[in-house]
Write a structure and sequence with these properties.
2% helix
Length: 245
């Protein structure tokens, strides 16, 4: 882990992550959300196994949250992690869409759409905080890329079998900090930001310790920057986006 208590304490940044009790079945709207006509029965990552097989005593479903890259000795420190073209990035803007022919009569208002938010599920999965029918699951691909799927498109059988979770208070202070982690692949739990160009953007990969040079954009894993994913609440009456693309 790359957390430094001294640096965190000096960060002008407040995290107030809400971790509700484990849920089963469909996801209800987050507290304070309008009961709109979006689909809240989100798809979960079916490859996520039960907590007992991964050394976790409990898996909690979470409210929506955003994530930042944490590595105080790097140029990506405290930069937002966003999604675009079904991948996660540091240094790229969020890419989403809200079509005119969305469900409803009249259609419900479009979400803000320029924020990347996700949530964890009680089954060890993770999914985008989108309102599109079918949901958009988050997963780690066979080449260690952190990705999300188009709505209603099944995840392939070659994805990494992992459990996503929020680990609250990874350092003694300040309270409210959580890390978005995964488990189930050895001792790996952190991430890599691998540059497309010398000054970014950086594509996000799971730090498995066995990534090949040919998998990363620059062709050299040593160009990548290790980081932890710091999570903070995203509070809105609507999902963060209608559909991430």
């Amino acid at each position: 882990m790359h957390f430094s208590a001294a640096v965190v304490l000096s960060s002008i940044f407040t995290l107030t992550l809400a971790l509700p009790a484990p849920q089963s079945g469909s996801k209800a709207p987050a507290p304070g959300r309008l009961n709109v006509n979006y689909n809240f029965n989100k798809q979960t990552l079916s490859s996520g196994s039960k907590a007992s097989s991964n050394g976790l005593s409990m898996i909690k479903a979470s409210a929506p949250f955003t994530i930042k890259a944490y590595n105080s000795e790097s140029p990506i420190h405290m930069m937002d992690i966003n999604v675009s073209y079904n991948k996660f990035w540091v240094g790229n803007a969020t890419n989403s869409t809200c079509p005119e022919d969305r469900p409803g009569n009249p259609p419900q208002p479009c979400p803000v759409g320029n924020i990347t938010a996700l949530l964890t599920t009680s089954t060890g999965g993770a999914q985008m905080d989108s309102g599109v029918f079918g949901g958009q699951a988050v997963y780690i691909g066979p080449r260690a890329q952190l990705r999300f799927n188009p709505p209603s498109v099944p995840i392939g059988q070659d994805v990494m079998k992992v459990v996503f979770a929020l680990q609250p208070n990874p350092i003694p202070a300040p309270p409210g900090i959580a890390a978005f982690t995964f488990s189930g692949v050895g001792k790996a739990s952190g991430y890599l930001a691998c540059p497309v160009a010398p000054k970014g953007p950086w594509q996000v990969f799971a730090d498995l310790g066995s990534i090949r040079d040919s998998w990363v954009p620059s062709g050299d894993v040593s160009d990548c920057i290790g980081f932890d994913a710091l999570a903070t609440d995203y509070t809105s009456a609507l999902p963060a986006a209608y559909e991430y693309v």
